[in-house]
Amino acid sequence: MKNLGQLMKQAQQMQAKMAELQERLAQTEINGIAGGGMVRVVLDGKGDMRKVTIDKNLLDPDEIEVLEDLIVAACADAKGKVEAYMQEEMAKVTGGLHLPPNFKMPF
């Protein structure tokens, strides 16, 4: 029974660390760029978009497809960085314990 109490204590500590991580992720800004920096997208650490910046030289109605592609590319760049950041931060919280993607604590 002593081990069960220790396990519950560790689970509670991990839950507190996870809550702290969620707060840090919400405050973190990660940039994605495309077109040599002509399109920039800012996502928070949870992957929610906060800002899009477009160089005025890209605002040509005849070249709208290029702009659309660059926005998608900048979002993909930022999303990849967010996922890498989240994995790094999760490894810190879990002490290197590899949990499956989208793992939810049961409490």
Structure report:
This protein is of the alpha+beta class and 107 residues long. It has a domain at 34-95: 2-Layer Sandwich (Ybab, Chain: A), CATH 3.30.1310.10. Helix content is 53%, strand content 17%. Strands 1-2-3 form a three-stranded antiparallel β-sheet. Helix 1 packs antiparallel against helix 2. The chain starts with a helix and ends in a 13-residue tail after the last helix. The model has no long low-confidence stretch (mean pLDDT 86).
Draw up the topology in text.
Layout: H1 2-27, E1 29-34, E2 39-44, E3 49-54, H2 64-94
Helix pairs in contact: 1-2
Kindly list the characteristics that best describe this protein.
Ybab, Chain: A, three-stranded antiparallel sheet, 17% strand
What does the main sheet amount to? 3 strands, antiparallel
In round numbers, the mean pLDDT is: 86
How far apart lie the N and C ends?
A: 20 Å
Element order, helices and strands?
A: HEEEH
Annotated CATH architecture of the domain at 34-95: 2-Layer Sandwich
Overall geometric form? rod-shaped
Strand content: 15-25%
Rg, Å, rounded: 19 Å
The count of helical stretches stands at 2
Portion of residues within helices: 40-55%
Structural class: alpha+beta
Query: What is the level 1 CATH name of the domain at 34-95?
Result: Alpha Beta
Full CATH superfamily name of the domain at 34-95: Nucleoid-associated protein YbaB-like domain
The CATH topology of the domain at 34-95 turns out to be Ybab, Chain: A
- Physical arrangement of strands within the biggest beta sheet: 1-2-3
Q: What's the β-strand tally? A: 3
Poorly predicted runs: none
